[in-house]
User: Which sequence fits this backbone?
């Protein structure tokens, strides 16, 4: 696994010239899964991509175009591991709507790579600071019954600075989670009178609702300098609408006194544990640790930059589960890095929606777009 | 955007309007009566204007295959004739006021429920306005929460209705609140006597969670529909009509065919059917233009995942007949279930004697059966389907058709939006 180690030790997270190393790390990782995961072996054989193809010398983009990918849907249907249980350090699950979720194992080496990545990418976006902070987590309080990656990630993010306190909007008490907006609003008002920076971390939908609720009650504060809002876990219905994000930024400034530049959004998935943070222009650039391929919605061929297609995410970070190349059910576009103008040169991607919906406003599907957010918001009361 | 008492306000005013709504609504309930004639007159005017082509630009922009057909249906459903028939069917004769009262009986009359909170899904353009219209026809004050996906059509329709009949203004409140704003949703629910919710199981359970105890829940949940084939009267025509139905509704409506059941015990019959039906389906799908990019992506991903499942040795392996932008999958059981949609339908065995036990397992989801059979057997099979819980038995081509006097999911909606008051 020397190439993986080298890749995750790459000196600049958005540096150039990593293609050769990335290809070697992908090949090494693919070969590992091929030899250790019966399902991955069968899939590759079934798609005529055996050891010869795995080891073939091709330019990176050509190799990635041919490398078989596994849809996240398959991870939701089947558990696949490339290591015995005892060597799997932790297992995390996706949040999983409609009862189906992925379970992904992580090896110690992969987690170490992840730590290096977090340190480097976090430093870029000035997430780390020796100045202690108070954290307000707009998500779940960790509990052993909750194995979702989003809970672990949010908790992990509270270690970016020394932590004075952690408040959770979804508190675990008497065997269930309950939602505590009032408690959080009181806390925010109390913190505003002190000098310690405050950091919000969690679901955009909850944070948005908190801002709106404070505005509604006429509560406007100016949080101490260096306070930030960190967002992760998806925008759900806001997801594609830039205007909603603009409203969010404006409201954060108005209600909490936190400026646009101090709002940082994360993108990630349990099936692709790369930490994408948005740049100062709020674009998700691709770090050296991963590649994003946009594929045709009809035949999965590679699309050009600027064209819409299915988002295929590739990283050789993990050995415990064959998540080397996963196909999400997101539709997205890849842009040339230069188009952004923030200074980072690697391409950036934009998620524009999920598969199906524009015509599936379905009645029959039970995939009710409409009240999903309420379900999320009420989950605390119903878990 | 918000509509309250005939005026349009920006969304930011929501909390103020909601805070004042209680008082305004009470005033309306105390002294105003909305006559059905006022509502019919407004809706009929809208229908006439649609027919005249005033809204053609708006209708042509809808993501539907055949805007002219859509327009004709809308004009018909909004006509005075249709609405009067609906009122008469659903509420007429419900209480016969001319009948002499027996001894000890007390007079009864139909009154509006009071305030109805409509939570409409975005599965059909104009559905939110339709739900509201039903609330108005029964004289209720209506609070409508628009779906996130609403394209502005509903607001436009509602504003027109108020323009035609300003009396409606006090009975209409429309909000574009996102469902995540639980505070506002609770407030709207608290103002209401009934909540009409259109949506899937998740939507319905979310509404149950936020509804005050005792409020009447009027749930229009997601339903499943299927075709049942037991011989033919005119095979070519019937199969073409079924294919046209699948191509036109793409499996997206409650009344869309998800499973084609064949009255047989033999697997071979399913294969013969698929081989014969696939080209017909392909032809009808081809006639109706392309599927959206998201839809194509959805199907490609499902097929690819299925292919990987096959490689991994899924047992039993379903047999799939793939056509261009459509497919038929032979099911390994007889369960009624959701297909992959977008013109990808399941084909399953269902011998006649098993209809009832199989369908009863999905009793809360049954809606339309598209029946294809010999003319002579139609009544007998219809009877079994009806006894199983199916609420619409149509010819296969008319599975999603609208007709005058139509019940909705086995009920007359107007009855659910009213109450009976006994007065001594």
Assistant:
């Amino acid at each position: 696994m020397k190439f993986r180690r080298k890749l995750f030790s790459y000196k600049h997270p958005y540096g150039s010239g990593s293609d050769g190393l990335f290809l070697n790390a992908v090949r090494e990782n693919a070969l590992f899964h091929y030899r250790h995961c019966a399902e991955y072996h069968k899939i590759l054989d079934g798609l005529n991509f055996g050891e010869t193809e795995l080891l073939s010398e091709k330019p990176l983009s050509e190799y990635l175009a041919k490398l078989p990918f596994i849809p996240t849907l398959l991870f939701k249907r089947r558990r696949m591991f490339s290591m015995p249980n005892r060597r799997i350090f932790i297992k995390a699950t996706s949040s999983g709507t409609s009862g189906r979720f992925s379970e992904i194992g992580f090896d110690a080496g992969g987690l170490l790579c992840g730590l290096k990545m977090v340190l480097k990418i976090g430093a870029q976006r000035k997430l780390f600071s020796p100045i202690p902070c108070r954290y307000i987590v707009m998500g779940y309080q960790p509990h052993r019954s909750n194995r979702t990656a989003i809970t672990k990630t949010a908790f992990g993010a509270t270690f970016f600075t020394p932590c004075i306190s952690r408040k959770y909007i979804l508190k675990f008490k008497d065997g269930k989670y309950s939602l505590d907006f009032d408690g959080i609003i009181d806390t925010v008002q109390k913190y505003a009178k002190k000098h310690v920076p405050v950091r919000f971390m969690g679901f955009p939908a909850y944070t948005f609702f908190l801002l709106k609720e404070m505005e509604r009650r006429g509560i406007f504060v100016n949080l101490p300098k260096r306070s930030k809002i960190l967002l992760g876990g998806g925008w759900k219905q806001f997801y594609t609408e830039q205007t909603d994000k603009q409203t969010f930024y404006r409201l954060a400034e108005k209600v909490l006194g936190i400026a646009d530049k101090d709002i940082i959004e994360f993108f990630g998935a349990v099936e692709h544990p790369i930490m994408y943070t948005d740049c100062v222009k709020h674009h998700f650039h691709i770090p050296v640790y991963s590649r994003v391929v946009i594929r045709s919605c009809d035949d999965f061929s590679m699309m050009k930059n600027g064209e819409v297609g299915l988002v295929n995410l590739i990283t050789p970070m993990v050995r415990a589960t064959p998540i080397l190349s996963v196909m999400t059910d997101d539709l997205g576009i890849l842009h040339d890095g230069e188009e952004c103008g923030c200074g980072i040169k690697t391409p950036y991607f934009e998620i524009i929606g999920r598969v199906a919906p524009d015509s599936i406003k379905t009645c029959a599907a039970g995939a009710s777009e409409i009240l999903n957010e309420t379900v999320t918001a009420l989950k605390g009361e119903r878990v | 955007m918000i509509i309250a008492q005939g005026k349009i306000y920006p969304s930011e005013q929501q909390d103020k309007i909601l805070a004042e709504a209680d008082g305004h609504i009470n005033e309306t309930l105390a002294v105003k009566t909305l006559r059905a004639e006022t509502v019919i007159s407004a809706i009929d005017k809208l229908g006439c204007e649609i027919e005249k082509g005033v809204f053609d630009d708006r209708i042509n922009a809808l993501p539907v295959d055949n805007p002219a057909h859509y327009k004709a249906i809308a004009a018909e459903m909004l006509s005075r004739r249709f609405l009067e028939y609906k009122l008469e069917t659903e509420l007429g004769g419900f209480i016969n006021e001319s009948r002499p009262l027996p001894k000890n009986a007390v007079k009864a009359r139909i009154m509006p429920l009071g305030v109805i909170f409509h939570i409409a899904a975005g599965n059909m353009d104009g559905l939110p306005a339709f739900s509201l219209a039903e609330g108005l026809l029964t004289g209720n004050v209506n609070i409508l929460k628009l779906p996130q996906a609403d394209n502005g059509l509903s607001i436009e329709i509602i504003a027109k209705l108020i323009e035609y009949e300003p009396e409606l203004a006090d009975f209409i409140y429309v909000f574009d609140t996102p469902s995540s704003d639980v505070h506002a949703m609770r407030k709207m629910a608290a103002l209401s006597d009934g909540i009409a919710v259109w949506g899937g199981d998740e939507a319905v359970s979310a509404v149950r969670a936020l509804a005050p105890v005792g409020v009447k829940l009027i749930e229009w949940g997601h339903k499943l529909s299927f075709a049942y084939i037991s011989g033919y009267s005119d095979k070519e025509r019937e199969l073409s009509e079924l294919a046209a139905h699948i191509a036109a509704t793409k499996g997206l409506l409650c009344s869309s065919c998800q499973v084609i059941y064949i009255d047989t015990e033999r697997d071979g019959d399913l294969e013969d059917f698929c081989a014969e039906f696939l080209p017909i389906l392909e032809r009808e799908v081809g006639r109706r233009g392309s599927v959206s990019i998201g839809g194509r992506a959805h199907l490609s991903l499902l097929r690819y995942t299925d292919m990987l499942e096959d490689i991994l040795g899924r047992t039993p392996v379903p047999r799939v007949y793939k056509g261009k932008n459509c497919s038929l999958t032979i099911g390994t059981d007889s369960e009624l279930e959701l297909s992959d949609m977008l013109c990808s339908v399941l084909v399953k065995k269902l011998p006649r004697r098993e209809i009832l036990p199989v369908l009863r397992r999905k009793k809360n989801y049954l809606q339309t059966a598209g029946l294809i059979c010999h003319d002579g057997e139609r009544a007998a099979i219809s009877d079994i389907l009806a006894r199983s819980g199916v609420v619409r038995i149509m010819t296969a081509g008319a599975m999603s058709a609208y007709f005058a006097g139509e019940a909705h999911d086995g009920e007359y909606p107007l009855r659910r939006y009213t109450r009976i008051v006994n007065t001594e």
Observations:
- Chain A touches chain B through 58 residues (CB under 8 Å).
- Residues 236-243, 357-383 of chain A have pLDDT under 50 and may be disordered.
- The domain at 2-114+279-354 of chain A is CATH 3.40.50.12780 (Rossmann fold).
